[in-house]
# Entry
Amino acid sequence: MLAELGNFALVLALMMGILLSIYPMWGAYKNHTKMMAMAKPLAIGMFVFTAFAYGCLTHGFITDDFSLTYVANTSNSTLPLYYKITAVWGGHEGSFLLWVLIFSMWTVAVALFSKAIPLKMVARVLSILGMVGIGFYLFMLLTSNPFDRLLPFFPIDGKDLNPLLQDFGMIIHPPMLYMGYVGFSVAFAFALAALISGQLDSTWARWSRPWTIAAWSFLTAGVALGSWWAYYELGWGGWWFWDPVENASFMPWLIGTALIHSLAVTEKRKVFKSWTVLLAISAFSLSLLGTFLVRSGVLVSVHSFASDPSRGLFILGLLVVIIGGSLGLYAYRAPQLKATGRYQLFSREVLLIGNNVFLTAATLVVLLGTLLPLVHKELGMGSISIGAPFFNQMFTYLIMPFVLFMGIGPLTRWKSQSPQALYKQLLLAFALSISAGVLINASFEQSSYMAAFGLVMSFWIIVATIMEIQQRIQPQLTSGKSTILQSLQKLTPSHWGMVFGHLGFAVTLIGIALVSAYNVERNVRMTIGDSVSLQGYEFVFKDVSNYTGPNYTADVGHVDVYQNSKKVAQLSAEKRFYPVQRNVMTEAGIDSGLTRDLFVALGEQLKNGDWSVRIYVKPFINWIWLGAFIMAFGGILSISDKRYRMTKMAKKPHTNKTPSPVLKEQVS
Amino acid sequence: MNPRRQKRLMAVSAILLIVGGAIGLMLYALTQNIDLFYTPSEIIQGKDGKIPEVGQRLRIGGMVVPGTVKRDQQTLAVSFDLVDTGPTVTVSYQGILPDLFREGQGIVATGVLTKNNHIEAHEVLAKHDEEYMPPELAEKMKGIKHVKPDQASYGSSKAGE
# Structure
């Protein structure tokens, strides 16, 4: 019964979406305040009904209602309760319900937290979100309804949740990722609303910024969690595979990163307007493209959902409508998008163009590498695959100039920067980063050229970032008005956001450089009692015991690790067998640390009782994810900046004559 | 041309140069990293009239022939035969096979062709789903695909992501 109510609630949410896409837009066109004011209750209604539907599905999972096709396919009565709750997004239909739930949450958040923005703008933004919502809700109701019943003959027990997904990382990874994906729909809606209104000054950029940064922060965390999950759950010890689905989440991230920088320039300097609008459209389109790739089954991947041609076609249609419509509107309005600011060749604007060029290039590389096999096959030229070396090589080329710009960018001034003034500073930063990078790299036994390079790049960013802070607080220090601490406190949250964002990137880069160069992997054949030494660690294979979990049985291999004859870690690597899906799963035993991870995974048991064992020592791998979380934290920090909530400034776009000193000082 | 336009021209041409260079590099890297996909019979009989050369990097997809999996007694070296509808190709591999590697199961391997019917693989993949068959393979083997009765009745969805 509840399931039918849930289905009905979804239909009601769709109705709300349809009304939302018409009334406020019409109201904004006719200047009809009452109609525009409808936007808020409609958005709330859409959210409430979606949340109710979500609750109904969750109820179906908790009560083991296997008459629901979706529950029968993704759950089982032996599944622990917490996994039953998370199994709601363990398959295609339910994860799409989570997707629309998060979508309605963003919509309602825009409706509630936009008091500083004129009613007309909010009405248009919500209307566009309503239109996007129609597409999402129709997709779910027509092609992937989670409330479909298996009546009258339904199974006694379910097919169980894919064991790979029975894991903590999986509990938080999809919601985070969807928050990011769907969050870009808000940036998209703001850009489109600005295009529709024709009010193409930079005010829309300020309104859109906190939303875009929020979406970007979630996406950053989501991508990092996915990578972390792949690392410990797939049992291969890798953290990035250039898998099509990983790429699908990485492309919106790259474009989103370009977008948050471009938005900063548009807001502060009133240039790049046209480009920013395009980026906002691209970011959301790439999110949708990712959805299409994952859910249509056109790509081979560890992730892909079961294919159903009608779904793929629907998303493709949606993609065409959204991209086509928004680009059409863009083409119509583009002539009005005139830049009013001027800037010299050496200025922060140009360096940020550099940032955008490289990020866009990186996106194109990933897009090409992901789609080429697909196109190649559809053209009838046979199946091909593009290996990880292609992406690694391209990213190595792209990151060098990118990092160079990233260090210089924050140090330069808007409009124009004299190279002489910066020359000494940059030279010092360069010398410092080279010596730091080379010295640290020398501390590793067999030093690698690539690692040294990565370290130098990371330190270049760190040193430049610190210099930038120092440059910013210097005037106050020399005038003797405040101490170092006081002047640091005077820096705005959005400035700290940039600082953390850049430092986080440097931390991730350190992790990537060191783990790529100094990662030691060995696959060995071991009998009980055998030991292997690796990087000064002695791995002793103690024994293998049996263990019975709630819905699986496991062989648990115990490996003790000694360093200088002192026991440093006790690892237990599991080989689990899930009887319902007759699936074997590897749970790696990992001892995590700031400077290294010790990783042991069981392979198969060989005929004579030996085990094949993977033994890895991964230096600094946790820095990769740590850096990503620092970046996401930076994003959150910058949203907390109170200038985004200033009503006065938002209502009256400030003119070029007297930019407030605060704004002039702020960075991004 | 006034100085400002001149500067703009420089900026634009610099961007074009970078983009052009990037595209050039990308295409070069691409040609180095494309692996063509073959089935065992295509390796022996050729695909579109072309037999792959010895030394070529490629991907092969096929079913593991039951009874052909041979392991070395001391190391992790393993070899097995792959088949689709015609002749078999032997694959040797040094390392740990994926959890779902089983005889009679569809797998995909990436490696180098060392003899006309032998591949040195450096990667062996089997999907984490026992009903899985690589789509490339399923397509090639259409018609001989066997659907278990207990799988046919359920809805179309499987867990993923």
Residues 418-518+623-633 of chain A form one domain. Chain A touches chain B through 73 residues (CB under 8 Å). The mean pLDDT of chain A is 88. Residues 126 and 316 of chain A are 23 Å apart (CA to CA).
